[in-house]
Amino acid sequence: MTLIKKIIIVGGGPAGSYLAYLLSKKGIYPIIFDHSHPREKPCGGGITTLAIEKFPILNEIPEEKYMEKEMEIISSKGISVMTRGKNYSWGVSRKTLDKFLLDSAIKNGCKLIAERVVDIKKVGDGWKIKTTENEYGADIIIGADGVDSIVRRKLLKPISKQNLGVCYGCFAISNKNEISKIEFFKDKQGYAWCFPRHDHLSIGVGVEFSNSKNAKKLLEDFVKEHYPHVTIQKKWGAKIPNVKNLDFYDRPCADNNWILIGDAAGHVDSVSGEGITYALWSAELAADSIIQDNPKLFDKMWREEYGERLIGSCKSRDLFYNSLLLDSSMKLARRSNTFSTFLYDALNNQLPALYFYKRLLKDFPKIFYEYVRSKL
Hints:
Blueprint: E1 7-10, H1 14-24, E2 31-33, E3 46-47, H2 49-54, E4 66-74, E5 80-91, H3 94-107, E6 111-113, E7 117-123, E8 126-131, E9 135-138, E10 140-143, H4 150-155, E11 164-173, E12 180-184, E13 190-196, E14 201-208, H5 215-226, E15 231-241, E16 254-255, E17 258-260, H6 276-291, H7 297-320, H8 323-335, H9 337-347, H10 353-375
Parallel strand pairs: 1-2, 1-10, 2-6, 4-12, 10-17
Antiparallel strand pairs: 3-5, 4-5, 7-8, 8-9, 11-14, 11-15, 12-13, 13-14, 16-17
Helix pairs in contact: 1-3, 1-6, 6-7, 8-9, 9-10
């Protein structure tokens, strides 16, 4: 069945472009409004094992992916361990990823209007969308326009500062074979990272919005300590959802003629900051609800499919960033390969909170055996 309703998607990033692509496969051709995509980002570009398995389209990205199975983790006290996973994750350029998904939607019949949306008004049962150049009408509007979503601001409220994080980063060239690295901060919930991509490094820091003034200095210190040999090409900054308050998830993300997806919905892992998985996942569910001619259904779908993951991550963030626990975890991972793999999987977004403790209990006998054996 082909819907005759006019659908406008504000935002041409992974969430908006993938939604348009999925709808086009069903004969529904939304219009995408975005004046800036595709663009590079300092944060992002890490494709988790879960995303690779769940979204086969990612295998078609026309770029050699940087395939990674190991990661160095450093606690706030400088205790370091090399962790290794059983499955690969990828590092890709966000510009390449975004362009691929946007091009896929356009090739299937969707339309991109490269204009910035500046206002949205409800008119009867539909919407009036004003851009810097024109005005347009729509029956259904999708907010896929990121953390500062104008759609969210007009329909609900902007994401509060308490539920925001800040990333500050750079792209760099290295003459060495680098591996992924994460270093946690002392007395701050956040971490610094280096994620290799095909032809460059993405180096950055992510902290709560309240610590945003320190982000530049934290990046400089991280680069000075670990990467004095790299050539920095360009620096970037960005806000991301970083939910701390559980009641945030009680707010609606859809109604009869609108949906919020991806960062606009605030659907990002509260511990790792990973959002690509949820951008694509939310797009998939939004497409299903629109195809069923019931956009409001999306609000039920995301809660059932991945709501527990987001809530569990939010609940565990204080425990995860506990310095004493991190130090102890690094020491244990040095003596147990099983626990080392457990840490890698946890950081690679493969362990939702529901299964986190089950996996730990299941692995405990082997972890204990390896630890005791290492002490003998």
